[in-house]
Design goal:
alpha+beta; 2 domains; five-stranded mixed β-sheet; Rossmann fold; eight-stranded mixed β-sheet; 38% helix; 417 residues; 16 strands; BirA Bifunctional Protein, domain 2; 15 helices
Amino acid sequence: MHDILPQDQPWWDKVRKETREVVDFYNYLRIDTPILEPVNLFERSLGAGTEIVEKQMFVLKDRSGDGFIMRPEGTASVARAYLQHGLSHLGQPLKLYYEGPMFRYERPQAGRQREFHQIGFEILGGESDAIHETQVILPIFRLLEGLKLKQLTIRVNTIGCKNCRPTYVQKLKAYYRSRLKNTCKDCQRRYQFNPLRLLDCKELECQEIKKSAPSILDSICSTCHRHFKEVLEYLEEVKLPYQLDPYLVRGLDYYNRTVFEIFSDFHTPDGQKLDFALAGGGRYDYLFDVLVGKPLPAIGGTIGVERVIEAMKAANINVLPRSRAKVFLMHMGVQAKKRSLVLLEEFREANILVAESLGKDSLNAQMRSADKAGVALALIFGQKEVFEDSIIIRDMKTGAQETVPLKKIVNEIKKRI
């Protein structure tokens, strides 16, 4: 887990600002769910054989012995809130978005530590219409574009439904059966409990074996084929760049049909390629079947904030720092110190940023603070100025000083900055 230090905040501010603009345009409503959720919510929704449930959940117990989990992802929490609060009474389908920390006990890697942040887009309810895939992918893609990330590509696949997927899984297991001894230990376990995850392994030897594995596109039923064809047609309609990836899967049990990930093909100045997904998601009609015994059309996608910021930095994307004060208020004496509080409020009402060090009484110490702040002007407010209702303006570059009536100082500063 990590701190987000002041020097990194402009990157986070930029992501939050672009997110707000995108969700407002595409009519997504914000939802915030608790960091702690019941353990069984994720055991049921993610699947007992998934690596998140088996290895990566932070589980806590309260004094009564009840178990809680620090949420490892946001979709199950949104689904729980949708059911618990009867959000089906709102206009359907319902577009929701969230942003916040997630927690997984996994080996820290590029852009992913044990606490990481996601921005999620979910469309729940309504019909199982293929256009909803594009209505999730499009705002995510536009958000990444708005952050000036280039050479973005959507990798997309279908993993079928309950009717056609079992046939493919059998073909996949048959292919891997004679090759299992050459795979990693995790894949040998996946073979038994979650065969689709064999295609998601990042180990080099396993990726070589995957290259000749059967394609799920040869096994999907006519209904899934028609749905996937419509998804691709909608993506083409809005000219989103995509690549078919028949080996793309998502690691959670609740996914069905469309799955996607968004990558940047950008290379850093030293030639390194950013080979991690910036975003991903898919359709999860079966999640509600697991939770309440009745399927509900739903699709979602998430952006990994740390990964996006890492990509922005690698691409040398300029992020304007927070607005900095151009004026520094210095005081001398008790009365000037008290009156400075009132004066600062007047600048606030005029929307003028003013820095200060009211806790320092030494003028030299305040001057050093003003130098560090890099301001253009300093205001010197002493006992004499308090009695005369005036203040001194000092040009920090030339050292020139001028005394101005206190009642005119706000307008005078407006003219000079």
